[in-house]
């Protein structure tokens, strides 16, 4: 009988399997999932949002806290959820909901001595703020989608830690960035990587193709990526934050795709200013979104 050749697992199939287990564990609150789906439905009304948000008293406080923060400097306090949603806008509401849904996941102890969810949260929060700053300052674009990419880009690591802790612990223990690209090592152990999982989660939440693609290839070495694209902004932000020593894994190195490196060299003053202003912008984000990173 001929020897059978064992096939390597398909990245997407394994990612779907892990994400299915993650979803079945109801790790993400159902209200958050429902709201994210509603946000992608252009027929949803502010009153419908209010009805769902009111089911979660903590979220009500978050929304009202945001709209009445010093950031908006309103003369009259807003007490209606629907009015608050109308004022802050759908994109800011979406980001607030995602942050609220994910924060408790990152704060939970991992049980993995080589991985810290708190450190990963600090990394993601810093990357998200950096993404928004680059989008708005360098390219004069709305920064909300870029912010969301930064918050979500490494969510796949949490999924792996949550539903396949033994394999994930082995990956973290043996990870050697000097030897091989992190996602290749991840695939060897896990049968998939956090990019694929994160992209599928974004698809499940009905987020835009641009957001999904940027999450799904933020470790890729790309020769044709535009600096102003979400993929370009996310990879630049990861690189800049890595240079500031705020990484998910202390030993991880971060390569930058050639078009992005060329762009950064041509705008080095602007990027130095962003690096200098990043701590203050992160402090503001803590106040606006209750984005605790301590």
What does this structure look like?
The protein is mainly alpha-helical. The protein has one domain (19-289): Hypothetical protein af1432 (Orthogonal Bundle). 66% of the residues lie in helices and 0% in strands. It has 16 helices and no strands. The chain has helices at 11-24, 30-39, 46-53, 57-67, 81-88, 90-107, 117-139, 144-152, 155-163, 165-174, 182-190, 194-204, 209-216, 230-243, 258-266, 268-289. Helix 8 packs parallel to helix 13. Residues 1-6 have low confidence and may be disordered.
Helix proportion of residues, in percent? 55-70%
Shape: globular
What's the name of the CATH homologous superfamily?
Hypothetical protein af1432
Q: Structural class, please?
A: mainly alpha
| Beta-strand content bin | under 5%
Number of helices: 16
CATH architecture: Orthogonal Bundle
Q: Segments where pLDDT lies below 50 for 5+ residues?
A: 1-6
Taking the alpha carbons of the first and last residues, their distance comes to 60 Å
Mean pLDDT: 87
Largest sheet: none
Gyration radius, rounded: 19 Å
Quick tags:
294 residues, mainly alpha, Hypothetical protein af1432, 16 helices, 66% helix, globular, disordered N terminus
